[in-house]
Design a protein that fits this description.
The chain is α/β, with parallel strands linked by helices and 339 residues long. It is built from 15 helices and 12 strands.
């Protein structure tokens, strides 16, 4: 079907694949039928927080709901939700050509391992998308925050590096992705807080009470990482271990300095917030849940992240979308921590 295949045409997949296609790469998309219907009618309209805009008309969007469309791909970007990774691995194993490269651009830590187990004759790399993508209607996707794509180093990447560079999405290559993944996951611990607040990211992070919630969740994870011997990579101007202290600063100081940490579009929300709004299952088990699994391996507890998991799961089941005030959520998390 195409030289580059996007397996999982959601917000991330459509945005990254669309940017590649807009720069001239041969790209095909695999996803659900209702997504394809929107792309066939509207094409792809892409934008970013810096004012960039790219358009791909409907006839030029190559879409299929059949995994067999990946059979001719030289590169497959897996962008499905983490819960769908085992099924994706099974489908790709049945159709991929020998030598095809696979990159997992997904949340969580273990998706590349699941893909490798099913694809032992292919090169499978862990990747990371640091920025937020917001769906703004059928075929319309907006990059709402800063960041560059990260990927595990491998010789098989070389033929495709220029595709990403031409698209304005250069790949940052790492010999060891685990510290990078943990650094991203520490930032993504805010996804649950943002979803529970029901506010745009920038508005939520402008309030110290919500930031203190994030600091509690991050400190809990950082303490466990120290015991594990993992030092998170530096994805922001501040080292990961310093960020909780920065989050606790007064609003005026945070507002003055926060823009230097990461640029965020005023309308951007976390993917977890979007999932709750759409009535979909979230990826809480692959974000805060990773901290719980790390705690279990050390026979310890992670009560703050456990409480956030419980609150998000309750929100998934609720008929009414919760909108936690910052002080109320902070009190809830503080109550969960041992005195």
């Amino acid at each position: 079907m195409a030289e580059i295949c996007i397996y999982g045409a959601g917000s991330i997949g459509c945005y990254v694949g669309g940017r590649l296609a807009a720069a001239g790469s041969e790209v095909g998309f695999i996803g659900r039928a209702h997504v394809g219907a929107g792309l066939r009618e509207h094409g792809l309209t892409l934008s970013d927080y810096r004012g960039g805009r790219w358009q791909i008309p409907p006839p030029l969007v190559r879409f299929s709901s059949d995994a067999g469309a990946a059979a001719n791909a030289g590169l497959v970007l897996v962008t499905v939700k983490s819960a769908a990774t085992p099924a994706a691995a099974t489908e790709l194993a049945a159709v991929l050509r020998p030598g095809a490269l696979v990159i997992s651009f997904q949340n969580g830590l273990g998706n590349a391992d699941i893909l490798r187990a099913a694809l032992p004759r292919h090169t499978v790399l862990a990747g990371m998308v640091p920025f937020n993508v917001v769906g703004r209607g059928p075929g319309a996707f907006h990059q709402g925050s800063a960041g560059e794509l990260d990927v595990q180093a491998a010789p098989a990447l070389r033929p495709f590096m220029s595709d990403f560079s031409k698209a304005g999405l250069p790949l940052t290559v790492h010999a060891d992705m685990l510290p990078v993944q943990w650094a991203k996951l520490l930032l993504n611990l805010n996804n649950a807080i943002n979803a529970l607040s029901n506010l745009p990211l920038k508005e939520e992070l402008s309030q110290r009470a919500y930031r203190r919630c994030l600091a509690l969740a991050q400190n809990e994870a950082l303490a466990l990482l120290v015991q594990t011997g993992i030092r998170p990579a530096r994805l922001t101007p501040l080292p990961a271990a310093w960020i909780p202290r920065f989050l606790n600063t007064p609003d005026a100081l945070f507002e003055r300095l926060g823009g230097k940490m990461v640029a965020i579009d005023p309308l951007a929300r976390s993917s977890m917030s979007d999932d709750l709004a759409a009535g979909r299952a979230t990826e809480i088990d692959w974000i805060n849940g990773e901290v719980l699994r790390l705690a279990e391996r050390h026979r310890q507890h992670a009560p703050v992240n456990a409480r956030l998991c419980a609150l998000v799961r309750a929100a998934e089941r609720s008929a009414v979308r919760p909108s936690w005030a910052g002080e109320d959520l902070l009190a809830e998390l503080l109550a969960a921590t041992p005195r």
